[in-house]
Structures are given as C-alpha cells and as structure tokens.
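Design a sequence for this backbone.
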C-alpha cells in the first residue's frame, strides 16, 4: 500500500499541485487514494476533495494530539488503497512552543512539548507527522537558479534528522532538458532517488488571496486542470519506483475515534444547522464526524442563497470562510439574517468561528471597503485591518462554566485573520503557544461560542458538550 508524505524545503515549492496531480494519477490507475493535510489548513483539503470526491482529513498534532493524529490516519487510510499526505510549510517547520508558559500544546491537559522529542521548532511539523506515522516522504523542489547545488539542499534536508524519512525527490516547474542534464548527477551526489519532474504548467499556478489559495470551488475548470497535471506526471514521474519506495504494510494500529459511549450513537437525535457555501467553508472533516458521532444530524445550508434556516434544528454552527467577499449578498438576504438573529438571541446553541463570528456582528466591511448590515446578534463593526491581525496556535480558557468549557479548562485553537472588529468581546482568554502572550476575546455562555479562534471539535469533549447543549435546548 502506498503511503507517502509530499513535502518541501519551503512554502511555494508546489506541494499542492504535485499532491493533487499524484492523487489524480493514483485514482485513475485504480489505487483508491485518500488524502490528508498536515496542520490547520482548510483550503488545501478542498483541492484534495475536488480530485477524490471524498473529504480530506487534517493531521494536526496541536489540535488533535499525537494519538488523535494516529487515530484519524488509521480510520481513514485503512478504508482505502493508498494514502497521500500533503505537508505544511517547510518539512521541519513546526511550532516553537513556549514550555515555560501555561499554554499547553495538545488536548490532554499536559504539555507534550515537555514529553516529546519534537520540541526544537519541529513540533507539529510535517516531519513530526511523518515520523509519528512512519510515512516515507518525497521532497518537492524547484531547481531553478541552481544545478549541482540542489544536491546540497536535498542532502541537507534529508540528513537534518537521523531518520528524516526522505525517500525521494520530485523536481517541480522543471524543464525536461534540466532533468535530463542534472537529474542523475543530483541523485548521485545527494544519495536521494530523483523520481522525475513536473514541467512548467499554467494549470498548476493556483490563484491566491489574503488567507492563501482561492478555494477550490472558485477556480474555473479545476478538475480538468488537475487531471492534466496528473496525466503529465504519468509521463514524467517514475510511478513504479515511487510505489516501490513508499509501499508499506499497516503501521498504525490504533482504533477509530470513539464517542464517550464507545461507538457512534445508533441514530441521531438532534439536528445541527451547518453553514456551508462560498462564504462559509472552513470546516474540519473531523469536526463534522465528531458531531455525528455524538448523535447529531447535520443540516447544511447557505446563508448566501437560502431564505432561512433548516426546520426543526437544535443547534447552529457558523464556521469560518470568506464572508467579507460576500458582504452584499449576505446583507441582502434579510430573511436569513433575521432568522439567525432571532434564533441565537432566543438561546439556540451556536458556535461561530472567525467568519461566522463576523457574520453575527452588527456590520461587516467587505473587501471593497463598503459596510453592510449583518445578523446583529453581537455588537461591533468588522473591518479590514489591512494586515494579518493574529496568527498561530494557542489555548483558550474561561473563568466561568460555558457551553464548551468549564471554568479553568483549556482547549487548543488556531487563529488566522485579516479582518478585525470594534467589539471583540472578553469572555475568554487566549494564550499563544509560541510566546505565552495572553489576550481576552470573544463571547461565551451557556449557549454560545463566538470568536476569531477556530476550534477542532474532534478528540476532546467539545463536540459532546455542544451536542448536549443542543439536546437541552430541545
């Protein structure tokens, strides 16, 4: 069974294009692949899903913990014929956790940084995941501007850790003449197999914006573009050699994630409305699975297009996304805004993260600087800060019992946004992992979580507590 990590020495090397091309090729050849993404990224998994037609799962050591990552990988990969994981940033780039602070890395209530060898900046890196899951790793490099020096770069990455798991290299955005002239020499000098190349292809240049790549749904003819990448890779990549280097038996034996009762509820007994459209689409696949495992039926709806909420719901989940790009459409859907305002104010249990939090505000400034009325559940005007406001992992806590957290409890989160608000709230405290800095944020009570930090509901008690609040609401 092929199991492989697609990684690079730095961002911008073309990991997503190579990963999607490989997924397309494996699917067409009958290898029945599944896909994973290291870290908290929402957008790259959308590209994976566009190829395979099934969700791509995040492998995030901070949000899920090491055991949670093993469980997610085991649950997904044992159902498929091959597994491809896309790395994050550079191979060894992780979180330099501040072990001297009270910000815990992980969900167990202890500090894995003090228990793990991954504590020198590679904690939660692609390397950490590859080492944890014993995944062979293929390095994607752009060789432009260098010849034999590329061997030094490749050898340096491969030998940086005693067992780096680097088993091969793919040149990206590389001419056939370069590959024929230097491929063998670079392999001989670095000691790492060069498995082929991907030539320059306009299809592989995916457009970006302030939070990263444009979402898969926004890119015209994406499926055809990725298919062309995969077909080209069939010509230029030594697939047989890649399969030989990455073929391995099952290495992760941990069982499936379970609910507190030990198995998924026999039948869902509550209904949670989940916003999912072009404005709200930053949703972890494991979060949805965790809610279903806890007994929820998920009712997807569109705040942009639908006239109102699904009927007979017991809870509401408003994830992040790009509401700032659809301010006019969201505002002009007055019936939806009014229904959400009345429902949340009446106590409908609600989680609103980042973009969902902005939607609950009184006003939202769009990408063109125009301000639009939103749901008006919360005070404040959300506007473009003109820069990255906050970025990175942290833990959140409260001083009072709330829907998701009891007083003094912690949960890991990730924050990443360019929009800010004039009324950010102060019901919770976030402690940043990298430096221990703290700030108050958000709105939290018996039926509400609303704030910029993104939650990961799988693996801990958050999903069960949200569903329990929905049951109590009735």
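Sequence:
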């Amino acid at each position: 069974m092929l199991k492989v990590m697609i990684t690079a020495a730095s961002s911008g090397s073309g990991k997503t294009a190579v990963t999607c091309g490989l997924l397309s090729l494996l699917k067409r050849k009958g290898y029945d692949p599944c896909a994973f993404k290291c870290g908290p990224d929402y957008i790259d998994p959308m590209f994976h899903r566009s190829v395979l037609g099934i969700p791509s799962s995040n492998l995030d050591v901070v949000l899920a913990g090491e055991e949670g990552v093993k469980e997610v990988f085991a649950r997904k990969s044992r159902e498929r014929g091959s597994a491809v994981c896309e790395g994050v940033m550079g191979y060894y780039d992780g979180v330099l956790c501040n072990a001297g602070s009270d910000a815990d890395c992980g969900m167990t209530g202890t500090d894995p940084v003090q228990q793990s060898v991954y504590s020198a900046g590679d904690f939660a890196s692609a390397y950490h995941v590859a080492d944890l899951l014993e995944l062979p790793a293929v390095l994607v490099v752009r060789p432009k501007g260098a010849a034999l020096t590329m061997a030094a770069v490749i050898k340096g990455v491969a030998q940086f850790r005693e067992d780096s798991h680097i088993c091969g290299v793919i040149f990206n955005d590389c001419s056939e003449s370069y590959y024929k002239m230097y491929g063998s020499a670079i392999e001989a000098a670095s000691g790492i197999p060069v498995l082929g190349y991907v030539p320059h292809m306009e299809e592989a240049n995916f457009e970006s914006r302030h939070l990263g790549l444009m979402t898969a749904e926004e890119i015209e003819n994406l499926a055809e573009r990725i298919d062309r990448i995969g077909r080209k890779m069939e010509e230029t990549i030594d697939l047989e050699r890649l399969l030989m280097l990455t073929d391995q038996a099952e290495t992760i034996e941990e069982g499936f994630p379970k609910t507190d009762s030990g198995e998924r509820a026999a039948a869902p007994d509550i209904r949670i409305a989940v916003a999912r459209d072009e404005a709200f689409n930053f949703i972890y696949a494991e979060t949805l699975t965790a809610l279903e495992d806890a007994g929820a039926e998920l009712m997807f709806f569109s705040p942009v297009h639908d006239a109102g909420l699904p009927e007979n719901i017991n809870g509401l989940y408003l994830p992040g996304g790009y509401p700032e790009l659809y301010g006019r459409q969201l505002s002009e859907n007055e019936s939806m805004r009014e229904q959400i305002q009345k429902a949340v104010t009446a106590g409908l249990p609600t989680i609103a993260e980042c973009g969902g939090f902005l939607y609950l505000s009184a006003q939202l400034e769009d990408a063109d600087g125009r301000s639009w009325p939103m749901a008006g559940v919360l005070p404040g005007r959300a506007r473009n800060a003109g820069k990255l406001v906050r970025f990175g992992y942290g833990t959140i806590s409260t001083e009072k019992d709330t829907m998701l957290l009891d007083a003094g409890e912690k949960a890991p989160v990730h924050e990443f946004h360019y929009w800010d608000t004039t009324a950010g709230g102060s019901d919770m405290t976030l402690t940043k992992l990298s430096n221990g800095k703290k700030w108050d944020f958000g709105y939290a009570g018996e039926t509400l979580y609303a704030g910029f930090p993104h939650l990961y509901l799988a693996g801990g008690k958050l999903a069960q507590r949200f569903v329990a609040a929905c049951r109590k609401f009735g």
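Confidence is low (pLDDT under 50) at residues 99-104, 106-115, 254-262.
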